[in-house]
Amino acid sequence: MPDRLSALDASFLYVEEPATPMHVGGVAVFERPREGFDYDRLLALVAHRLTYLPRYRQRVVSVPGHLARPVWADDVDFDLNYHVRRSALPAPGSEEQLFELVARLMSRRLDPERPLWEAYFVEGLAGDRVALVTKTHQSMVDGIGTVELGQLILDTVPHEREPGEDTWVPRRLPTRAQLVLDAVGEAVQRPGEVVENVRSAARDAAATADKVLDAAGEVASALRAVLRPAPDGPLNARVSGGRVFAGVRTDLDAYRGVRARHGGTINDVVLAVLTGALREWLGSRGVTLSPTATVRALVPLAVLDPDATEFSPAGLVNNRVEPYLVDLPVGEPDPVLRLQHIAHAMAEHVDAERSVAARAMLKVGGFAPATMHSLAARAAGSLSGRLFNVLIANSPGPQRPLYAGHARMAEIYPVMPLARDQALAIGVTSYHGDVYFGLNGDRKACHDVAALGGMISEALEELEGTHW
């Protein structure tokens, strides 16, 4: 039987346009150890770990006439050096230069004729550091059979180069005749699906995706808010092909202190900080905010089986991360009241569907932030139109150091994709005592994400300094 893409996976290919590439990314900064950490060492590490990720050596093959959804097939011309690339900043490279490079890399679509992922080894950072920038298409990472590449190359302890010979031999690509025969064979059992696939191929891409997602039941099962348009504002704009990126590093203990003083969860505090930053940013844009003004955030949450007694991969419902719509009270001038409003709204979601709160998600063994962010992006893809203003995906990470070979990871910034009408997407993760924000914005509509990044730190200080 062919390894056919699911309806949801195929939808991410259908909706992809030049201005909205459908990949999730990450930026990891490493300290170069005395043993050395160079491009060749990274290449060897990735080559060894690909043994556990067969999907990363497969490409998408379309079926003639669109009689069925595309299939995964081994890339007979797989070239690891094409996928793991080398780049450099003019030494000593700054964070701003790294983030500008990230913006350029993330704006480019992945090659559909090859496996849908890329990694860039970036040298030249100040302080004898290097960075790893990863891009993985949303159609690949389902959290079940395939995880994000960044998850697999990291370990909790430093390790030597792993010996072993790569014995992978690609299977031949299926012929056009075989693809058609397989599709016809399946059509005997599900004849209506052939008609739908042909119709879908002729439709507008967005309409196609809506139909596929409806069939998958994603929208109907995931929405937990009134289906009304999101508030108008600068966050909703038809995105261009350019991107801007900014990263922000904050102290995890600051969030713990706010939580201890005012209640809620760490995730609630993160959302309250972002609400304060967005309030300040909108003011800098000349937007007049009424006391009841809101910004609607799409906040994906992992969902547990109602019968599960503990947090574990088996307890997750099909490794599902569902999208929830939360109205952030940007019009409220008091930071503590903003936090209380958010905590109340989030508690309703968590209680209603056994959603995994951010502080509990750390107990879901085997799910690194990179994979959880990919699943969050997939959940966000089930909503279209103007139902939300901004995507905020928070996935806590480990509070102990992680290593690629002997190189210790010092920083990590998620890069979430933009939808067609959303000019800003925010990824959040915690790691080794810090909380990291990755702000991915449209270069035209949201050119000032660096300023918004500074406002995140200011909003956290405001919450820290508020006493009731």
From TrEMBL:
NCBIfam families referenced in this protein's UniProt entry, alphabetically: acyl_WS_DGAT
Organism: Prauserella shujinwangii
Enzyme class, broadest EC rank: transferase
Record-given protein name: Diacylglycerol O-acyltransferase
InterPro entries for the chain: Acyl_transf_WS/DGAT, O-acyltransferase_WSD1-like, O-acyltransferase_WSD1_C, O-acyltransferase_WSD1_N
Domain O-acyltransferase WSD1 C-terminal: 319-463
Keywords per UniProt: Acyltransferase, Glycerol metabolism, Lipid biosynthesis, Lipid metabolism, Transferase
Pathway annotation: Glycerolipid metabolism; triacylglycerol biosynthesis; Lipid metabolism
Top-level taxon of origin: Bacteria
A GO biological-process term: biological process involved in interaction with host
GO molecular function: diacylglycerol O-acyltransferase activity
All copies of domain O-acyltransferase WSD1-like N-terminal, residue ranges: 5-270
Record-linked SUPFAM superfamilies: CoA-dependent acyltransferases
EC number(s) per entry: 2.3.1.20
One Gene Ontology cellular component: plasma membrane
Family statement: Belongs to the long-chain O-acyltransferase family.
Known catalytic reactions: an acyl-CoA + a 1,2-diacyl-sn-glycerol = a triacyl-sn-glycerol + CoA
